[in-house]
Amino acid sequence: MEWLWKSNSLRLQVTEKIWVLAVVLGVLTLTTSGVESRKARILDSFEYSAISCRAHSASITDFGGVGDGLTLNTKAFQAAINQLSQYGSDGGAQLFVPAGKWLTGSFNLTSHFTLYLQKDAVLLASQDIAGWPVIDPLPSYGHGRDAAGGRYISLIFGANLTDVVVTGDNGTIDGQGALWWQKFHGKKLKYTRPYLIEIMHSDNIQISNLTFVNSPSWNVHPVYSSNILIQGITILAPITSPNTDGVNPDSCTNTRIEDAYIVSGDDCIAVKSGWDEYGIAYGMPTKQLIVRRLTCISPYSAAIALGSEMSGGIEDVRAEDITAINTESGIRIKTAVGRGGYVKDIYVKGMTLHTMKWVFKMNGNYGSHADSHYDPNAFPVIQGINYRDIVAENVTIAARLEGIPGHPFSGICISNATMGMARKAKKVAWTCADIEGITSGVVPQPCGLLPDQGPEKLEACHFPEESLAMDSIELKRCSYQKKYL
């Protein structure tokens, strides 16, 4: 336990400033439009790490882009990407976005392509809602999340692609979401809000070294895709902003999310795979997911949530070295009758938590159905849930674990977990119903449905030793050389 306590102390020091930022975000919307970017020279050349390097380069300014925060650059971005797409079979191409404020609507990516945002480069999402294209709901959802019909396309969008990199020197993508949040709360949206970036039906994707702020809804949404690396990103939104999930791996295989810092109004990481009968029919699970070195602040949601849209299945999720501060729950499973699907083989170790309502939470009665056509006999299967090596303090309730009557959640294992209760903690630390499992070395004492196996079984909860395919990804050292036209 000594290493955990030392780690806890260090992490709390590191994340103190992030907590201060979260307090500010609770009352202020981050904005870049009202503050002048620092003047920065445009680099003639630089290097960066990526899954693929490119043979051809161009700047958005080569296509008439103007970074004054006022000129709409949608056509410039799309023209640049269309032009650079011709190099897909000739070593690929990269588009450089220099320092400035680049107002733009949605644009589509292409294969064998890199979008690079220099430090002090800010993509500002257009607030002209009429200018946002509307596309069909996702087939595994069959229904918009904000409204019954279609959905506004994401700011950065790609479909049926391979070998795509969206990266930078911590450049910023600003969704300017306040307008969207107001319309959502006022029930004035005809379609579901856009995300900042969505990549679907694609393979070999990297999203790294960027800051995402004020998304209208979800921030980063890979869906129906495989071999995805999400690394070194910062996501910031007011803690009261609606549905501003951080990263949502959705019906994806082989995904690695690491070194992420997220302050949001919803789940920091939300693992999904389709909604009710639509997700069951589509039948595409999320599996082989790695989440490591995540720092999360979300007072009304979870650090990592599994569901609630999990009807295609979720399996083999490995999360470690997770820090959460003033977050509603550490790990949460959300499901309900009608969801079908499964959540199984979940492995979590090394969590450091400070000021939590719940450390563990499972809901078998989440509700929130796509429509009234779901199958009332579609019972989700929740099994093989492993949590170990956890230190938490200032906890209101240790756990609320509620399965489904007649269909209990099984194979739950919690070991080596010490939860310091808050001064005003609830008298009953554990609430359990319709679950089956074991515990070892857990404080405070768990409920009777999770019998203690004794201190000699501290490693009873499994965490796989074998690596997944995404662990073997090696980044290349790439370069950009400005070409003077």
- Straight-line N-to-C gap: 61 Å
Radius of gyration from CA coordinates:
22 Å
Mean pLDDT: 92
Helix content: 10-25%
Number of strands: 29
Number of helices: 4
Beta-strand content estimate: 35-45%
Q: What structural class do helix, strand and pairing data support?
A: mainly beta
Largest sheet: 21 strands, parallel
Q: What is the overall shape?
A: globular
Q: Low-confidence segments, ≥5 residues, pLDDT <50?
A: 1-41
Pfam families: Glyco_hydro_28
Organism: Escallonia rubra
Keywords: Glycosidase, Hydrolase
Protein name: Polygalacturonase
Summary keywords:
485 residues; 21-stranded parallel beta sheet; four-stranded parallel beta sheet; 4 helices; disordered N terminus; hydrolase; GH28_Enzymes; polygalacturonase activity; Pectin_lyase_fold/virulence; Glyco_hydro_28
